[in-house]
Amino acid sequence: MSSERSRKAERIRQIMATEGDSVERNARGFNEGRYESVARLEDYDAYKDRARAIKEDAIERLPELIERVRETVEENGGTVYVADDAADANRYVRELARERDAETVVKSKSMTTEEIDLNEALAAEGCDVWETDLGEFVLQVADEAPSHLVAPAIHQSREEIAALFNEYFDPDTELETAEELTAFAREYLGERIEDADIGVTGANFVTADTGTMALVTSEGNARKTVAVPDTHVAVAGVEKIVPTFEDLQPFVELIARSGTGQDITSYVSLFSPPVSTPPVDFDDDGPIADDPADREFHLVLLDNGRMDMREDDQLRETLYCIRCGACSNSCANFQSVGGHVFGGETYSGGIATGWEAGVHGQESADEFNDLCTGCSRCVNQCPVKIDIPWINTVVRDRRNRGAEDGRLDFLVEGLSPDEEPAGMDLQKRFFGNFSTLAKLGSATAPVSNWVAETLPSRLAMERVLGVDRRRDLPEFERETFVEWFRNRDVPRPVDADYHAVVYPDLYTNYIRTDRGKATVRTLEALGVAVEVPEVASSGRAPLSQGMIATAEDHAREVSADLEPYLEAGYDVVAVEPSDLAMFRGEYERLLDERRYQAITERSYEVFEYVYGLLENGVDPAPLRSADNGNGVGSDLAYHSHCQQRTLELEAYTTDVLERLGYDVRTSDVECCGMAGSFGYKREYYELSVDVGDRLQEQFEAPDAADRTVVASGTSCLEQLDGLLARQPRHPVSLVDPDGSE
Amino acid sequence: MQTQLETFETNLGSVRTAVTRTSPAAFQDALADVVDEPAIGAPLPFADVSLEGTGVVLEPTPDQLREAACGVTAAALGVADYGTVVLESTPAGAELAGLFPDRHVVVVRERDLVDDMAAAFERLGERFRDGDDDAVLATGPSATADMGELVYGVHGPRETHAIIVEDDAE
């Protein structure tokens, strides 16, 4: 296991060094473009809802829609073949090629043909196969796999492509600029298209009522691939079917914006093949014949696991995916490593876990599934609103459950009172049971901290548990936040208008107790009657390791612990955004509806709560303001937490701080890179730091370098502490009326 | 507040498509100003403007398709919000003429403009069900970023030019 972690760390290091710069530039460019482009779309959220509804309906009715497509395509003069799996699809297309004595096959970009390795199958038939999309062409020449769903050669720079082409094609004049490379490829591939006997495309969508396929492209190669050869083969997953032609509209509005950040691509082809354009025989001298009857069209609808995914309550959502790549581009880890690390045999990015597990099997998802940290930044970016982190969690859980019995289990047995199978990965088990460890660490502090920090301990932790020794370990407090509250001699206010439980999350209770105390003082200063009872940990830690059953236990305990307070009219204030995100998000899946509603309706992030109080007319005067900042300057650099931003809660913190006279500048990176336990893991430490570098860069820029650094999440604070010379602070420590930090 | 036509023109401009506005009577003169020779094209399905009598070759051979510097074809619709033109495929090969040459001149009538994609799909739905069921929503020139930088003119036209034929004043 230890050598496996080293191998993984080495692979990540190598890809970051060779491909990281290009991937980062391109993925971040797409991501920024997406934010701008969707902001220009007036009905963005309504279109997402429509797109989601269309997909839900289509997958629900899929068997019927497949038959409808068969009818309409046949009415149009084409043929439909439903292929069970990759081998079946390849056999069908090979036979077509054989019957036509096809020598040259040209293809436009299709991830589905990548999935089934169609090129290899056609090559085995003796066909000369050419990818006409320039990105795919680069990969074909370089003999590489796609590193991105939409821009498959995203990892290659212009210089690398020039070197590749110059060596491979040995042109008369060396190619250098992007213009020259494009002109060369246009001419080279233009000749292949002229010679082509068969054109192969994918399809972004297929409409059941008109037999129309939509192809979303910008180069024009798909148009030529369809127009020139007299035989057109389209290979599409069965999930590409939508019921009606008009259903295409929301997707046309969304797909390019979500993917590459363009409002629309240059071409959206809406073809109901065989197309009415006459095929072109470039060996002929006469006018291009007006004889569309010569055309042949074959639509190969691929199952390859999809119909099983449709029956799988957890993986079904994957079939709604339109493969725009938004989840990749908005993913902090993907921005650093690209699809060659964060991807399986064919697909890449967050949604790839669902695709790979569904079409290639669980093992293909295992290798990269941990790259999803559950930060949730992709969730709001997905145009069909897929809960991508949840799919990753489910697949991780299945992987844990598929694990064989391990030998070293006794080492963590005492620390792992969980519901998980005995053989699961020790590292995951260790982090997943962090609540037990924290309890023990706090009870024996400070000795536990001294012992943990000794070199032999760190070496053992690294070797056995994969905890990177370059990270500082959290230091446990002897007196927990709950104990502090219980021991304190402060009378409860009588006749308070507001009653709140401050949720003692793991970190606030055992490690960063100061921010809990600051929260209590802040709320009490605003007239809130506060309680800090013993409440179970939220289950975030086990959930992020894919330990769903354990997380479910935690959720039920939390619900039971909070129930009397909720019934008595208390609100719940969470200091840690990732725990609030559990209450608002994952608890919907972990608890029954009644218990979920009871918690979610009454829980707030601390600044969200303070904001609400101020909006309800509570006087902020007791809070510490910028001009009484106790050594803190009034200029702040604030990094909100990833899940906090997904819940759209960032503005409450900035608003309250601004009301108190602070000047707040915010980061716009997607995630700090720490993401809970991720940054502690030996195999991911360097990736975590690489992601953190982007945040560091923003906060060390001249306009932020002198500002006090503030962050809401524990992970973010740990990461910033490691990255910056300045000590970061939780924002509540600034407003705490008794702040003596 | 821009008119639909003005919005269309503005958005054509922002997707690198040059614009000429003309009356039906002045169409052939306007065309002559923007066509590069040799030019090919497909018959315009419009009553008041035509490519007959211009130098545009309407039934090109494969060689002429390969050698053409410019292609002239009609748009069935123009979508104001996006600066998009709808290019219908025809048995005469409109799709080819608008795709192979370096420069594409597209002829769109003012009366065929719609505000947005929703309206376009409504109109297209009718046409598709009536059998005109191959079309391309084309927005600006062919482009790629796959070679490390944005380049125009990949497999499709590098330059796009829209001739908007105004409605006759009644």
Would you list the SSEs of chain B in sequence order as H and E?
Answer: HEHEHEEEHEEHEEEE
Tell me the major beta sheet of chain A: 6 strands, parallel
Global geometry of chain B: globular
Full CATH superfamily name of chain B: NagB/RpiA/CoA transferase-like
* Structural Rg of chain B: 15 Å
Percent of sequence in beta strands of chain B: 25-35%
Please tell me what the overall shape of chain A is: elongated
Terminal CA distance of chain A: 42 Å
The proportion of residues forming helix of chain B, as a percent range, comes to 10-25%
Report low-confidence residues of chain A grouped into runs of 5 or more.
404-414
Q: Structural class from helices and strands of chain B? A: alpha/beta
Rounded to the nearest angstrom, the radius of gyration of chain A is 28 Å
Q: Please give the CATH architecture of chain B.
A: 3-Layer(aba) Sandwich
Write out key terms for the chains shown.
A: 741 residues; alpha/beta; six-stranded parallel β-sheet; 36 helices; 17 strands; 10% strand; B: 170 residues; five-stranded parallel β-sheet; 25% helix; 4Fe-4S ferredoxin-type domain-containing protein (chain A)
Task: Walk me through this protein's architecture.
The complex is a heterodimer of chains A (741) and B (170). Chain A is built from 36 helices and 17 strands. In chain A, strands 1-10-7-4-2-3 form a 6-stranded parallel sheet, with helices on both faces. A 4-stranded mixed sheet of chain A has the order 8-5-6-9, sandwiched between helices. In chain A, helix 17 packs across helix 18, helix 29 (577-590) packs antiparallel against helix 30 (593-600) and helix 31 packs across helix 33. Chain A is 50% helix and 10% strand. With 741 residues, chain A is α/β, with parallel strands linked by helices. Among the domains of chain A are: 58-307, 3-Layer(aba) Sandwich (Rossmann fold), CATH 3.40.50.10420; 481-735, no CATH class. By secondary structure, chain B is an alpha/beta fold. Chain B has one domain: 3-Layer(aba) Sandwich (Rossmann fold). Chain B has 5 helices and 11 strands. Chain B has helices spanning 4-14, 27-34, 62-67, 94-97, 117-129; strands at 17-22, 39-41, 70-74, 77-79, 84-88, 103-109, 113-114, 134-138, 143-144, 151-152, 159-165. In chain B, the strands form 3 sheets. Chain B has a 5-stranded parallel sheet with strand order 1-11-6-3-2. A 4-stranded mixed sheet of chain B has the order 7-4-5-8. A two-stranded antiparallel ribbon of chain B has the order 9-10. In chain B, a hairpin with a 6-residue loop joins strand 9 (143-144) and strand 10. The longest helix of chain B has 13 residues, at 117-129. Chain B is globular and about 45 Å long. The model of chain B has no long low-confidence stretch (mean pLDDT 96). At the A-B interface, helix 8, helix 9, helix 10, helix 11 and helix 12 of A face helix 3, helix 4, helix 5, strand 8 and strand 9 of B. Strand 9 (267-271) of chain A pairs antiparallel with strand 8 of chain B. Chain A: One of its GO terms (biological process) is lactate metabolic process. Chain A: This is 4Fe-4S ferredoxin-type domain-containing protein. Chain A: Residues 361-391 form the 4Fe-4S ferredoxin-type domain.
